[in-house]
Each structure stands twice: as C-alpha cells, then as structure tokens.
Amino acid sequence: MAHAFATIGIFAKKNNAGVTRTVETLIADLIDRGKQVVIDDSHIAGHYGVATCGREQLGVSCDLVVVVGGDGTLLDAGRAVAAHGTPLLGINLGRLGFMVDVLPDEMRTTLDEVFAGNHIAESRLMLTTRLKAADSAEAEASVPAINECVIRNQAFARVLDFDTYMNGVFISHHRADGMVVATPTGSTAYALSGGGPVLHPGLNALALVPICPHTLSDRPLIVDADHEIEIHISSTIEGSAMYTSDGQVSRDLAAGDSVIIARAPYNLNLIHPPGYDYFNILRNKLHWGRGQEAPKI
C-alpha cells in the first residue's frame, strides 16, 4: 500500500555545487510526480520556483523530509523536525553515510519504492539536555541531540574535574578531558573513537564514555536510556568548560554548572530504501571482515 507522502520537504547542505545539482534534479522529479515541494529557506535560496519555509516549519508542513548532504546535515535536520514525528530520507553527498544511505544515482529508483510504500521505517531514540547554572535554581530550556551530548574543558590539554549521577544517585568523580553521553545512533561517532562500544540502534540504552580519563579504570558505562544523567562540573575548575550537542550546538559552562541529560519525549523517524541492512553499513564503514563475503546459512 502506498504512503500518502503528498508534501515533501527538502533540507540540504549549503554552499555545495554538487548538492545544488542534486536538489534541482530532486525538485524536478517530485514535481513530475505531482508532489508539493517545500525547501528549507536557511539552506537553499528560493530560486527554484517552489515554496520555502523555516527549518522547524518543515516538520509541521511536510509528510516527508528529504535530506541532501551528509550525516551532519541529517543531524541538523533531525533536531529541527523530529518533535513533529516527520520522517527523514537521506541522500548521501557526504563522506561516511551512516544515516544518509541513498546514493544520488539511486535517488529516483528509491523514491519510486518509497512512494509505493516499499521502504523500511526506523525509529531512533533522542536526547534532550538542560543546562543548569551554579547560581540558578532553574535549568535552561532543553537542547535536543541525536548522536551525543559532550562535556569537555575549553582549554586545550587541560583536564576537567566533574561528577556523574544517575537519577540523583552518585556514580563517580572523574578527571578526564570530558565525557560523551551517546545514543545508539551516536555510538559509532565520537563515542566510538573514545573507546566506547557499538550499540545496536534498537537498544534503549546510553553509553557514558570518558574522554581520555586520567584513571585507566574509568571505563565506558552502559545504562538504560530511561534514566536521567546529570554531570556536575567541579566548582574548583580553572577557566570554563563547554557543552556540545551532536558537535553542532555549543554552550559555555562555568565552575559549578550542571548538565542534565534525559531521553527525549519523541524519537527520530528515518526511512530507508528496501534492502537496508545496519550490519552491512557497519561492515562497509568500519571495514569489519574486510574482503570476506557473508556466509550462506
């Protein structure tokens, strides 16, 4: 049964000639199919003859958002539209392609399948973060994250002292460059380079991965994603620390500040083409079992 994707939003990487050409081809194809097309006005100038709107409005106005770019572009789009439940389909013009898994040459065929209802829908957990200043009783408005929340010292090569808590229960004191709190989606990103495990995207779990800890026994910790994590910056640190969401949204942190991380009340919804295989992506991107074909069982 075909899905009624009547209005299609486009969220594209900016200032890239290859992306511009792909977007032009995509728009022409969608118009030929009789679709209404809306483009994110912060990425693409409105010279295509179709409607534009702000990124947050895409989630309200569209039935499907097609992301043209790399994984970073999809993270940017996802934080903007996920709260509205709007699914995303990624066209890969980036490098890694863990999340944007449709090649430009396969775009038309993939759209044929998607609009015919032949696709794989996937839901990924997200995080929201509240930042609480040392001199305030109230936390700031939440900041969403798809991959990870990172706390680290702003000063290069200077360690950060901080404490971790789960549901108000003390976990440990840390001296490290910082901490990564990663979703299963983000377990193959910054957390993986820090020695964290790969978490299957279907898990309801988070990875707490210390960055270059000064104590070698300070190892990654896996917890249920329904628990609230709090990271409290020591009141004795020199200089300032920094919070980042997906490496794209940053906030300064001072001595005594806290970062409160919880599962978001909504998920990121993705659409994959037929034949999507998460483990095949891991084999290709992480070079698992390189040169070996999958055994027949």
Helix-strand layout with pairing:
Layout: E1 7-12, H1 17-32, E2 36-40, E3 51-53, H2 55-61, E4 64-69, H3 71-81, E5 88-92, H4 107-115, E6 120-132, E7 143-145, E8 148-153, E9 160-166, E10 169-176, E11 178-182, H5 190-193, E12 205-211, E13 221-224, E14 229-233, E15 241-245, E16 249-253, E17 258-272, H6 278-286
Parallel strand pairs: 1-2, 1-4, 2-3, 4-5
Antiparallel strand pairs: 6-7, 6-17, 8-11, 8-15, 9-10, 9-14, 11-12, 12-13, 14-17, 15-16
Key terms for this structure?
297 residues, alpha+beta, Rossmann fold, Tumour Suppressor Smad4, 6-stranded antiparallel β-sheet, 17 strands, 19% helix, 36% strand, globular
Characterize the structure shown:
- This protein is an alpha+beta fold and 297 residues long.
- It folds into 2 domains: 7-119 and 273-286, Rossmann fold (3-Layer(aba) Sandwich); 126-265, Probable inorganic polyphosphate/atp-NAD kinase, domain 2 (Tumour Suppressor Smad4, Sandwich).
- The chain has 6 helices and 17 strands.
- It has helices at residues 17-32, 55-61, 71-81, 107-115, 190-193, 278-286, and strands at 7-12, 36-40, 51-53, 64-69, 88-92, 120-132, 143-145, 148-153, 160-166, 169-176, 178-182, 205-211, 221-224, 229-233, 241-245, 249-253, 258-272.
- The strands form 3 sheets. A 6-stranded antiparallel sheet has the order 7-6-17-14-9-10, with helices on one face. The chain has a 6-stranded antiparallel sheet with strand order 13-12-11-8-15-16, with no helix packed on it. A 5-stranded parallel sheet has the order 3-2-1-4-5, with helices on both faces.
- The chain is globular, with a radius of gyration of 21 Å.
- The mean pLDDT is 91.
